[in-house]
Design a protein that fits this description.
Blueprint (H helix, E strand, L loop, with lengths): L4 H20 L19 E4 L2 E4 L7 E7 L4 H18 L3 E7 L4 H10 L5 E4 L9 H5 L7 E5 L5 E6 L7 H11 L3
Parallel strand pairs: 3-4, 4-5
Antiparallel strand pairs: 1-2, 3-6, 6-7
Length: 180
């Protein structure tokens, strides 16, 4: 059976475009191993002026979002993170933002100006927009988010901007928040 050159050409083009789509997806990084199933790295922070640890939230679903006030996609997704916080709070879920910001005044102004309602912590060790806490997770770009299950293990890693209150994301959170 002879295959037409046109079919071969179109098949090759479709395969090439498929590869481009996979590499262009924000959740793909060449050579990066999956972190799903790994225990979330614990760290200390100050929340509402009191010492805290990520491990204090064991038993909750935590949306750990690494961001910065200098990052346009981070700024763009802030309202959706606020809406997600409202959506998951009653079911033992929370959004926790860790900001890679050096200037506390700019950080505080951003929180106030944008009506941020989710828990946030500014990593005071940040230098040149690089947060040691974010780097301990392997984060090299912002925003980057880790969904941590009630068991303290990473369920999912999301790289880049996300519409946190899209129907698909809300369905995802409904599925994991329904688990005990």
């Amino acid at each position: 059976m002879r295959i037409s050159p046109k079919i071969i050409a179109w098949g090759g083009l479709a395969a090439f475009l498929g590869i481009i789509v996979v590499f262009a997806m924000p959740s793909y990084r060449h050579g990066e191993a999956s972190v799903a199933g790994h225990r979330a790295e614990d760290f200390t922070m100050q929340l509402s002026g009191k010492p805290a640890h990520l491990s204090d939230f064991h038993g909750k679903v935590v949306v750990l979002n690494f961001w910065g006030t200098w990052c346009p996609p981070c700024i763009e997704e802030t309202p959706a993170l606020n809406r997600l916080q409202k959506y998951i709070a009653s079911r033992n879920g929370l959004v926790l933002g860790v900001a890679a910001d050096e200037d506390p005044a700019i950080y505080e102004k951003f929180l106030q100006d944008n009506g941020v309602i989710f828990q946030t912590y500014r990593d005071p060790q940040t230098k040149n927009n690089r947060s040691p806490i974010a780097e301990s997770y392997g984060t090299t770009m912002f925003p980057e988010t880790y969904i941590i299950g009630r068991d303290g293990k990473i369920a999912r890693k999301i790289i880049g901007f996300q519409e946190w209150d899209s129907p698909e994301m809300l369905a995802y959170f409904d599925s994991i928040l329904g688990k005990s």
